[in-house]
Amino acid sequence: FSINMDQLQLDEELGRGNYGTVKKVLHKPTNVAMAMKAGRELEDAKLNAIIMELDVLHRAVAPEIVEFYGAFFIESCVYYCMEYMDAGSLDKLQGAGVPEDVLARIAACMVRGLKFLKDDLNIIHRDVKPTNVLVNKKGEIKLCDFGVSGELDKSLAKTNIGCQSYMAPERIKGESQNNLGTYTVSSDVWSLGLSMIEIGMGKYPYPPETYSNVFAQLTAIVHGDPPELPEDSYSEEARDWVAQCLRKDPERRATYKELLDHPFLVRDRTSNVDMVKWVEKALEHKAAVALAAAKAQTPQSV
Ligand code: ATP
Ligand code: MG
């Protein structure tokens, strides 16, 4: 079905990226809650290119991919409606800790999602990071914001080297040489590994505050040793799996098939990890942190 703004009742803001906001909306005709992402303004020629390319999104149907409901345009801005994920993105759920069996399940879902995009739709994600991994209270883990087309990517404005870069070393190098042709699946595998590290450590592994500037931070990614999962909380198998994603040489990184056949994920196939319980606890922790922050901000009433 097609969607337009008149059918939507706007609810609260779900989050804000570098360029736009994502709002929860209710699609009144179907009574379905959705997440609506607004892109930035574009020229008409580009809008037409996007309309054609959006078609691919309707075919991106898999258990590990956030469902696409439709898009519409208002005054040269794209509005994009997708499945609402009621536990939000992983970056905000990792605070309470991520035990190894949960990490394995997240990894397995991400790899299956990425493999589906690549094998079935010939899409490379290009923006793998914890904010683009969404979770719901059923315990499902799904990917969003993948790079369907150059134009759509630009309209949703995601090519940026922010203060948290998940870009592979070869891409950082390519970018500085203004060479955009270097993107391959293996660059996504690096970003996947880095996301696992962030989820496992509970924080981004190249924290901006430890570097004097962005250049120093990017230099550490390109020339330093890749980060590892902490030894005290993860097994040798888990650590090896992540290490295979974070090889500096893209040719040496594991493929999706190898990652799925690795003992770390083979074990997950028969694991009965309680994801619903983990999401519940993670949300409680997130709410407690938000409450404490709000209290710290409000001046004491008399
Ligand atoms: P960037 O701008 O670098 O891509 P980002 O991924 O955080 O960063 P957005 O894609 O604009 O930025 O998303 C903003 C936030 O909105 C996300 O971090 C996530 O918490 C929330 N969000 C996005 N999509 C959904 C969704 N479908 N359901 C629930 N929450 C969502
Ligand atoms: Mg996003």
UniProtKB/TrEMBL annotation:
A Gene Ontology BP annotation from the UniProt entry: cellular hyperosmotic response
E.C. designation(s): 2.7.12.2
GO function terms (MF aspect): ATP binding; MAP kinase kinase activity; protein serine/threonine kinase activity
Claim: Transferase is one of the keywords in the record: yes
Domain Protein kinase: 8-265
GO CC annotation terms, alphabetical: cytoplasm; protein-containing complex
Keyword entries, A-Z: ATP-binding, Kinase, Nucleotide-binding, Phosphoprotein, Serine/threonine-protein kinase, Transferase
Binding site for ATP: 37
UniProt record similarity statement: Belongs to the protein kinase superfamily. STE Ser/Thr protein kinase family. MAP kinase kinase subfamily.
The protein, known as: mitogen-activated protein kinase kinase
Organism ancestry: Eukaryota, Fungi, Dikarya, Basidiomycota, Agaricomycotina
Residues of the full protein shown: 162 to 463 of 463
